[in-house]
Amino acid sequence: MNPTKNISSQSTVPPSTKMKTYTLLFTCLLFSLMLGPISIAQTTQTSLNQVNKQTESTNLSAENPWCVYQGKEGPGAGKHIVLISGDDEYRSEQALPMLGKILAMRYGFKCTVLFAINPADGTIKPDHQTNISGMEEIDSADLLILGLRFRNLPDEQMKHFVDYVNAGKPIIGTRTSTHAFNYPGNSPSQYKHYGFNNKEWLGGFGRQVLGDTWINHHGHHKRESCRGIIADGQKDNPILNGVTDVWGPSDVYGIRNLPESANVLLKGQVLAGMSPDDKPVEGKKNNPMMPLAWSKGFKSESGKVSKIVCTTMGASTDFESEGLRRFVINAAFWCLDMESSIPAKANVDYVDPYKPTQFGFGSYQKGLTPRDFDLKNK
Questions:
Q1: Comparing C-alpha atoms, which of 142, 58, 124, 176 is closest to residue 333?
Q2: Per DSSP, what are the bridge partners of residue 296?
Q3: What's the pLDDT tens digit per position in 164-176?
């Protein structure tokens, strides 16, 4: 049974929408009595068109347990970005809709955001590790942006992801995506080699594709925050156009296995506290600093080389940093071979209000559905 097909609610217009529409229709008809039969017909048709548009919008939202932000004008027109959330700690279910709205409404990309969905009630449940609804949307993607942690997806969902990777298409990974998948030793999945601690495909998806897998918290978790420092020789890299003041309350991860071909863009400076004004920790934690963001290639089964960008920052509260948002937006252009379209300083202002909550296990907002992340500022 495919869990993505069993949680759609009935396609009906809510009563409140019907009442508002009927009130509008009645008012228009009453006013039109003073304007003659032709005006009545025209006004009635206009009102009916409004009803149809509201019905289409409501039905679309009811049928799909994911979000679609349809960009219109901009350099990204015609390109499809799929952003996949599903981590039980760092609130990617908040961060990725925010990024998707910026990419769609400011740059014209079509953006689809997927969530870990509880099949029992259709709510977003980041610690439900065996279902991400809408994975088939990956089939039409030009770029994936990941916010995943320890997923154990059924093969019928995972196949869409693996086919994408094997096709040599680009990927941006954030924070815990270095350990995106976790399969128990007795798993029957044909994709269990994607697990973060796999011994045959060493380090699984994280190490083989993104550059490294989970090792440790290099900074003291929840006590030592992170500042992003531009790596030597990278200040003119287009991915770093306008990227300044990168800071986040998440700590620096240990990174030990990057291939020599990886291009380190940012290094992670461990700070002595949880404020951007705190001083760097003295001693070996910052000597040398850990890689914080990098680009690399990955040669897939198809023989094609995927363009990969990864950062170990990515908590929803990290993305309050304008510099980090700009880094990801720039990386999207780079991954899509659109370097010439990277602005000198990309507009990464929020489209809708963004008020992320503190990261932590079990601290996600209960009862939310994808509809809570629909576009509000149209």
A1: 142
A2: 308
A3: 999 999 999 999 9
Residue pair 242/343 in contact by the 8 Å Cβ criterion:
yes
> What length does the chain have?
378
Strands 67-70 and 80-86: unpaired
Give CA 127 to chain center in angstroms.
16
**Residues 6 or more apart whose Cβ sits within 8 Å of residue 236:** none
- Confirm if 91 and 316 have CB atoms less than 8 A apart: yes
Q: Exposed (0-12), middle (13-18) or buried (19+): which is 217, by Cβ within 10 Å?
A: middle
CA distance to 242, 279, 297, 367, per residue, from 237 (Å): 10, 27, 16, 42
DSSP annotation string for 134-203: TGGGGGG-SEEEEEE-SB---HHHHHHHHHHHHTT--EEEEGGGGG-B---TT---TTGGGSTT-TTTTT
Tokens for 186, please give them: 């007795």
Look at residue 253 and give its three-state secondary structure.
strand
Bridge pairing between strands 110-114 and 80-86: parallel
Structure tokens at 74: 């901009």
pLDDT bin (cut points 50, 70, 90) of residue 55 is very low
Q: What is the pLDDT of residues 103-120, one digit of tens each?
A: 999 999 999 999 999 999
| CA pair distance 149, 126, nearest whole angstrom | 9
- Asked if residue 264 lies in contact with residue 258, where contact means CB atoms within 8 angstroms, the answer is yes
Q: CB count, 10 Å around CB of 271?
A: 24
Asked if residues 361 and 88 have their Cβ atoms less than 8 Å apart, the reply is: yes
Preceding peptide of 276 cis, ω within 30°: no
